[in-house]
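Write out this protein's structure.
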Amino acid sequence: MDKKDRDILHELQQDGKAGIKKIAKIVGVPMSTAHHRILRMERDGVILKYAAVPDYRKVGLPVCAYLLVNVSYTGISSQEEVARQIRRIPNVLEASIVSGEIDIVAKVRAADIDELGETVIRKIRKIAGVSKTVTSVVMKEID
């Protein structure tokens, strides 16, 4: 990947529906070049997918929180499996294995604090291997 590829990728990350003409103009390449570079990045797996990012308030999930999870390694197959089980919960948008004192960080969305509590207490804490959770509610998201 060169600078032009990175610039094209950046524009697509900002607006996945941006047209080839717009991207080519911003990056300063001919439309055919922008198009071929995008196709190559898709083919090579640089661009994995295109996704819609909703306005979570409008879809009824205005509450966002990060859940810090510690794993007990007795009686579980792997830390990865615990993370996969957490990620399968519908309100969980992301689950990542991290380094440091925390084992897994999960991003959770909910309609309200009650639903967030239900997700954490009745779903995530019930997963085998989850030994402790700490929930940090997002007070303001910065775009």
